Amino acid sequence: MSAGSWLQAQQKGLEKPGACAAGSWLGCTASSAGQKRETGGELMADTLRRAQQVRDKLIETFGDSEEVVVIKAPGRVNLIGEHTDYNDGFVLPAAVDREIIMAASPRDDGEVHLYALDLDSRSSFSLSSIVRDEKAGWSNYIRGVLLLLKERGLPVRGMNAVFSGDVPLGAGMSSSAALEMAAGVTAAAVGKFAVDMVELVKIAQAAENNFVGVNCGIMDQFISGLGKKGHALFLDCRSLEYELVPLPSSDEYKIVIANTMVKRGLVNSAYNERRRQCEMGVEILRQYLPAIKALRDVSPADFAEHKDKLPPIVAKRCEHIVYENQRVMESVTALQTGDVDTFGKLMRASHESLRDLYEVSCKELDIMVEAAWEAPGTCGARMTGAGFGGCTVNLVRADKVNDFVAFVKARYAEKTGVEPEIYVCEAEDGAKRLEV
User: Fold this and answer.
1) Angle between helices 363-374 and 401-416 (to 10 degrees)
2) Which structural domains are found in the chain, ordered by start?
């Protein structure tokens, strides 16, 4: 089935929304809050300049080599589709122009020597005995990927590697997934073997789940590996089928990520509770809809018919998921037809649903989003990520982006006493080798 016909199949039987109720471990240095980065060729020139610096540091640290490879892997933002992933649903992330850059050269002794430039921290191990490093915890993201590549019989080679990143600290833009994907693509380049990108995505997720010990979904690794410049990625979290969706031109609109500076302290317990509530909803609804396996299988019409069978709190959680999946699919259609206004309205409905039904927003996120709704140039704004802190994502007219940043920063600081960080971004390519 083609991507287009697959999307149409998902949309069959879904209603219009109408009146329906509407994580970072690495010390990477963020760009100056609110600073507008250059675009197009100047943006790539900046990436290549930083890549050259990382390459030079590799040679300075470990000595020259004729076989240096340089890889970049981006962070991401989820434009819409929140908490749908673990309900077998749909998400619409974009890779952004904040990335991990890794330079590496081969070794013949089967050892891996790593240097995290931003942390000024080193870690070394042998490929014959890959175990966790409790002191240099950042290295476990790389160790886990290399271990799983080896277990699949791929010819992983020893290497020296230096990496650096400008994925903002604590902003929930998935620097861990970026590092995992950078490690996998680097290992393939150094070892001179091929690995399918979707397979590498699965390896990276498994490494984070089973070696690092973080129970993440697959979205972050998927978009870091398969993102495309100027596009979002519509992902079916059950089948892993995906479709690239064109975004409005970066000359006309910017993706702006606003960091509340609130650490997401309640997210683990709240995440587990909501996951249980969704599972309870499926168990109850299956009595009336025996074919369903997850909330993704429940149409708005079916939900409306059987909503009263659910405990009130469970009904609220399920309502968010059912309609959020629909909003993702309607967002794809809106973006494919250039309907930015409709996409903005869907972003707003998503935030209202996350705030009122799924109840994972917080005072600071609401203040930031409400400021954006009033700011000049805003097309759409909502919280993004697991919730209880973190960031908002905004689609903003390029000619108003500086006014937007100034307004939101001032309003948020006025109401909270906290200076936010704001990152003006573009949708960028996924993990790939750079010619430096």
Assistant:
1) 140
2) 25-82+89-247 (3.30.230.10), 258-425 (3.30.70.890)
Scan for tokens 């909270």, then name that residue.
Answer: 416
CB distance 21 to 120 below 8 Å: no
φ, ψ (nearest 5 deg) of residue 84: -85, -20
Nearest one of 377, 335, 348 to 232, comparing CA atoms: 335
Residue 272 has what pLDDT?
86
Taking alpha carbons only, the member of 94, 55, 93 closest to residue 72 is 55
The verdict on whether 85 is a catalytic residue reads no
How far is residue 283 from each of residues 236, 295, 299, 336, measured CA to CA in Å?
Answer: 22, 10, 16, 36
State the catalytic residue, choosing from 85, 97, 166, 220.
220
- The one-letter amino acid at 226: L
Whole-number Å distance between alpha carbons of 322 and 305 = 13
pTM: 0.89
Report d(CA 404, CA 319) in Å as an integer: 32
Percentage of the chain surpassing pLDDT 70?
89
Q: 91, 394, 385: which is closest to 243 by C-alpha?
A: 91
Mean pLDDT of 185-189: 98
Residue 335's identity, in one-letter code, is: L
- Over residues 414-428, the pLDDT tens digits come to 999 999 999 999 999
pLDDT in tens, 132-143: 999 999 999 999
258, 422 Cβ separation under 8 angstroms: yes
Please give the order of strands across the beta sheet that includes 391-397: 378-384, 391-397, 253-259, 421-425
CB 219 within 8 A of CB 82: no
Would you give the DSSP letter of residue 85?
G
Long-range contacts of 14-18 (CB under 8 A, 24+ apart): 14/299, 14/300, 14/326, 14/329, 15/299, 15/300, 15/301, 15/326, 16/330, 17/323, 17/326, 17/327, 17/330, 17/346, 17/349
Q: What angle do CA 224, 152, 68 make, to 5 degrees?
A: 55
Nearest one of 105, 109, 102, 123 to 51, comparing CA atoms:
102
Measure the CA–CA gap between 254 and 36, rounded to whole angstroms.
10
Q: Indicate the DSSP class of residue 32.
A: P
Are 4 and 246 contacting, i.e. CB atoms less than 8 angstroms apart? no
pLDDT band for position 268 (50/70/90)?
low
